[in-house]
Task: inverse folding
């Protein structure tokens, strides 16, 4: 996994957590993992397809999920209910969306998938032969761990061919 | 979720199971769920992005998974090793790939993500506000359950083109 994909995610997550919780965000120690990921209480899974391919996980404890969702939605929650679940899925979605915009600015255009959410501790998730870069981010109200299992795919720059070539140019070419 | 997305997946799954493991898959009863999915032993998760988007999950028990993988790889697997993981991920990948080819033929272009393999019974997988269509496929190796939580992208072009321009008659 390429470390250059790390910063867009870390800075997006930092900015979004800071603006939503109004707390300072500390970055923990970065590590590379190749084995299985043991799920925390809540895990948001989002895939990237395009010039960067792979999967991103955002994992957090029950307490952190509830705190983040409460901060995000301006409402006090006590349990990891469906509203909290959609709140943290949206958090993952916003971070990934902003990170993919930063990646596009750096020349790596990718599309992101809809988020899926895994609720429950102790299952193991394999990203197969993609190693994962793991970064914990901590705020006063809770912490969020980002797992990046991404790969560069120079053959699959999605968006550029999707913009249709104007017919005038096409006929001029032939 | 639109039922028209169902058949390409079922056809692809039945065909792939036939060619890869020589299994005659029998389709069980189709059901629709709005609640989160409680995982079986092994779940392969693949996202779709494009005209059809969402997530597809293939759930199965460990024994079904080992039977299928042993047959695909032509080698006996006694435990869910990394090789078995990549085997079952590849099965999900091939089925989803085949299904998206069928979507493309019907005019819906989509790309599939790399597979993620979840191992652990009883955790909840939520597709949030996407309802799931669940189809069990029974084979002599065990049951493979296909969960589809897909949606069609509404293209912007139609409403834009239909916009009427008011004529100034004065």
Result:
């Amino acid at each position: 996994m390429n470390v250059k994909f790390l910063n867009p995610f870390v800075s997006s997550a930092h900015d979004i957590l800071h603006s939503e919780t109004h707390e300072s965000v500390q970055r923990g120690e970065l590590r590379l993992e190749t084995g299985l990921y043991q799920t925390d209480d809540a895990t948001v899974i989002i895939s990237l397809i395009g010039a960067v391919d792979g999967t991103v996980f955002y994992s957090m404890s029950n307490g952190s999920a509830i705190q983040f969702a409460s901060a995000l939605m301006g409402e006090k929650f006590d349990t990891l209910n469906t509203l909290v679940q959609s709140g943290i899925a949206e958090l993952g979605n916003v971070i990934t969306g902003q990170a993919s915009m930063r990646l596009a600015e750096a020349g790596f255009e990718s599309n992101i998938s809809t988020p899926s959410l895994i609720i429950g501790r102790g299952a193991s998730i394999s990203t197969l032969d993609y190693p994962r870069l793991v970064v914990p981010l901590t705020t006063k109200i809770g912490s969020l761990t980002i797992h990046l299992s991404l790969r560069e795919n120079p053959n699959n720059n999605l968006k550029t061919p999707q913009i249709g070539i104007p017919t005038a140019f096409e006929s001029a070419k032939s | 979720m639109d039922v028209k997305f169902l058949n390409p997946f079922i056809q692809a799954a039945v065909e792939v199971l036939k060619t890869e493991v020589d299994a005659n898959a029998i389709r069980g009863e189709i059901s629709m769920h709005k609640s989160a999915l409680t995982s079986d032993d092994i779940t392969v998760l693949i996202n779709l992005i494009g005209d059809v988007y969402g997530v597809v999950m293939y759930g199965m028990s460990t024994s079904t998974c080992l039977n299928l993988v042993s047959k695909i790889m032509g080698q006996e697997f006694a435990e869910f090793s990394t090789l078995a993981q990549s085997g079952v991920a590849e099965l999900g990948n091939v089925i989803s790939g085949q299904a998206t080819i069928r979507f493309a033929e019907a005019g819906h272009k989509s790309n599939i993500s790399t597979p993620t393999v979840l191992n652990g019974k009883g955790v909840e997988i939520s597709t949030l506000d996407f309802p799931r269509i669940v189809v069990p496929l029974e084979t002599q190796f065990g049951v493979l359950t296909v969960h589809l939580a897909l949606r069609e992208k509404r293209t912007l072009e139609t409403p834009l083109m239909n916009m009427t321009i008011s004529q100034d008659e004065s």
